[in-house]
Amino acid sequence: MSTASALDRVIVALDSMSDKEAIDFTNGPARDFKFFKVGLELYLAFGADLVHKLSRGGEARIFLDLKLHDIPNTVAGAIKSLRGLPVEFLTIHLGGGADMIERALESAQEYLPKTTLLGVSVLTSMARQDLSAVWGVDEDSEQTFERLFALAKKRKMSGLVCSPHEVTLAKKIYGHQNLTLVTPGVRFQDEIDSGAIGDQKRVLSPQEALKLGSNYLVMGRSLTKAKNIDSRILELRSMTI
Q1: Residue 81's closest CA among 68, 99, 71, 62?
Q2: Which residue in 92, 41, 38 sits closest to 67, CA to CA?
């Protein structure tokens, strides 16, 4: 049995914080974590300077979650503008289409060669009925995810973002190809049982997500708003994988 713990697989989402709060949190209560997500809100407010500070010279790993989605030239230019940032993961929306994905990969290879692009499938805030309303597919159908994952595979993307519920499908479509799966929509079991899952709809516990094959778990308010983060850290550390 592996001696690694779920703690090693968690990316802490630093949402709804100031730059000082984010730095203090990562250096204090979240000091046992080594991987942090900077989302759109935080990046637009504090920019590259905060990313550099949070990485602490490479001591911490950074996931920049911008979900880039625009015409191909704009997305390629946006990635170029991030040149020099110590970012391990960066997100783009697969819904931008094949040309956008290709240009994004080309730009990342040139300007962010150490960064893995992750393709975002469907936001975890969207329930099945939303898929029907937006894309006109049967709300019980996996068609939307199948198409997006197949598109990512065809364009040779090596990373995806999806809820834990789509992990098995993603792995099936990719087969034996190298694939990194990053899964938001992860909450502690007691939060799920009590209905304290916020605006996320497709959620599972850390244990369930890891068992299905998630490589990394994105957890935000479950940790940043925890009444006792030390107990949550112990809970994650006790989950062997």
Answers
A1: 68
A2: 92
Among residues 168, 164, 171, the alpha carbon closest in space to that of 189 is found at 164
- The answer to pTM > 0.85 is yes
Q: Judge contact between 87 and 64, C-beta under 8 A.
A: yes
CA distance 183 to 162: 5
Q: 82-118 pLDDT, tens per residue?
A: 999 999 999 999 999 999 999 999 999 999 999 999 9
Domains and CATH numbers, the chain: 6-237 (3.20.20.70)
Active site residues: 67
How far apart (Å, rounded) are the C-alpha atoms in residues 234 and 179? 29
Residue type (1 letter), 153: K
